[in-house]
From TrEMBL, chains A, B:
Protein name: Uncharacterized conserved protein, NAD-dependent epimerase/dehydratase family
Domain D-glutamate N-acetyltransferase-like C-terminal, residue spans: 132-328
Source superkingdom: Bacteria
Residue ranges of domain D-glutamate N-acetyltransferase-like N-terminal in the record: 43-125
Organism: Roseospirillum parvum
Upper classification of the organism: Bacteria, Pseudomonadati, Pseudomonadota, Alphaproteobacteria, Rhodospirillales
Length: 339, 339
């Protein structure tokens, strides 16, 4: 799966900003790919991009209409399908990260075939992945791991990519979830592959590379999440990370979705990730902690980061509030031959 | 998936004993279900069961023809299909654990539909599984975990089931792989479910039960196997084991299938499994070690087990050579309210 750019971002009739957070993520991290937005009547959010019809977008050279909005009830409605059909008729591909597949909608499948266009269902892995080999491969990889789900692992990896590139380093974000795939233009939803191939899919998306190249691999879930830890472990083994960044949101009352489970201590989470990672990456180490402090006052957040940095002897940042500069500093210090 | 008994075991044209090891496992652990065997010309193995034609088997009350033989080249040949068609025409279901699906062979799908019979592809999970809840559930569960793949985890769980039942305990083997499913009559191939649902599938196959009931859950892979550890961890979390048995084959030169990876020490493997299991089963503990000593002389094996038992303070057995009595003794001592 390789999604062609530039994009037109479809916001549909999104009732609020949250419904269009996928589109917002793409516009934030890949503004150079996003030529415009397309909204339907009733849409209550905007990305601040030029509003474009399918016809405008085709003239502007858009290659892919990206559905950046969640659908209510899990069903793709006729108003959306009409837009997707017109995009295909204009020669664009259509990409979406929904549970329902575009390819399962006969009108879309037929129109795409007729016009030689592609339908990308990024939540659903296409093709087969190999069983992981576990063999050491060249190039450097950094994986973001979490105390829980939805704590900022994708955001942190993207922020590190941007910071590394700004410093002239060779760096590529590697996507493992649907929003990440639309931002990267390719990747694999590792939680949707067959269980035997989790690590193999991770090896595939972050392959051997130059010795001074960094893959920033988007983590998934948490080794401590009772529902999804298998995905996290397979990804950890397949990513074969040289460096790890721990992502954490303070003050969560419990693990996401499972009220009877509390979050692990940072030290316990780091120790578990290090022990597990050593199976394929014997020299792996942590290079920082990325806090999501959106629910803290700024002084509270600063105090927490300072205290944690002293306790763990690691740079502690909030990618939104402080940026990830100190983590990239640590990477450069710890891996002097790989910068 | 619930496979009806009794069985007729199909051996096909198996070139040697190894090719029919699935059938041999079923005959060993469920002799009361196996009314006969059916071989084709060229078959070079036997289970010692009465040879039966499809017609004989139908008269004897066989409900399912079980394909207990591996197919060469991964393709189901016409000679096999002919037998399966006759079984369906005689009112039997057909079950197989092959990579190729019976349901994908049009003749079989049509014949099954015509005669109201089922095709069981036990390697391929049917239906959907829930996301794991991680909630504590009643009943007791023992999971076999391994230093590596193919070290005797299924055999050990079955041996413990048999020993517990012989002592009048309530015990059920819970299958997580294709041979185990044919032996149990149901179960889930956890390595073939979508990654997000590994733990949920494990919760499903070993559900809440009586406080004095033991599920003996068949382990898969190893937390230390670079290819498959995600499956092992999801299964560990979903099984929520009260008790663990470590399975190990001494003197393996490397992890199965990955020559550059050596096996973990027993202590390291136990520690990793305990730490991970505590996410859903805080009080979990090891109750024994099951060695596969087939490559050792009997005195060597006995010395190894005695030395390991002293070092780890756990009963050490070889389920084939010594039986698993000492492990069940330990279970009864450690869980006096659950026997």
């Amino acid at each position: 799966m390789r999604i062609d750019q530039p994009y037109l971002l479809f916001l549909g009739d999104a009732p609020d900003d949250l419904a269009a957070k996928t589109a917002a993520g793409i516009a934030q991290w890949r503004p150079e790919w996003c030529l415009g937005q397309l909204t339907l009547p009733g849409c209550r959010t905007t990305l601040g991009l030029p509003e474009m019809s399918i016809e405008d977008a085709a003239k502007a050279g858009v290659r892919t209409l990206v559905c950046g909005v969640a659908n209510r009830g899990g069903v793709i409605g006729q108003a959306w399908i009409d837009v997707f059909v017109r995009a295909l008729q204009s020669g664009m591909d259509v990409a979406a990260g929904l549970h329902e597949r575009l390819v399962d909608i006969p009108t879309l499948a037929e129109t795409a075939a007729m016009h030689g266009c592609k339908l990308h269902d990024v939540r659903h892995p296409q093709g087969r992945y190999p069983v992981a080999s576990g063999a050491l491969r060249p190039g450097h990889r950094l994986l973001t791991v979490g105390t829980d789900c939805s704590v900022g692992k994708m955001y942190t990896a993207l922020a590190i990519e941007r910071e590394m590139r700004a410093r002239g380093m060779k760096a590529d974000f590697r996507a493992t979830g649907q929003t990440g795939i639309l931002i990267a233009g390719d990747g694999v939803s590792v939680d949707a592959v067959v269980a035997d191939f989790i690590a193999g899919a991770a090896e595939t998306i972050a392959p051997a590379n130059d010795p001074d190249h960094w893959d920033l691999v988007e983590g998934q879930g948490s080794l401590f999440h009772a529902s999804y830890a298998g995905v996290s472990l397979g990804l950890l083994h397949g990513a074969q990370p040289d460096a790890l960044v721990l992502c954490h949101e303070p003050n969560r009352p419990h693990m996401r979705g499972i009220p009877h489970h509390s979050l692990p201590e940072l030290e316990a989470c780091m120790e578990a990730n290090l022990a597990a990672a050593r199976v394929t990456a014997p020299a792996t180490r942590f290079v920082g902690v990325a806090f999501n402090t959106r629910h803290l006052e700024s002084t509270e957040a600063a105090d927490l980061m300072a205290a944690t940095a002293e306790r763990l002897e690691l740079p502690c940042v909030d990618p939104v509030r402080t940026g990830v500069g100190p983590i990239v500093d640590r990477v450069r210090a710890d891996f002097p031959s790989a910068v």
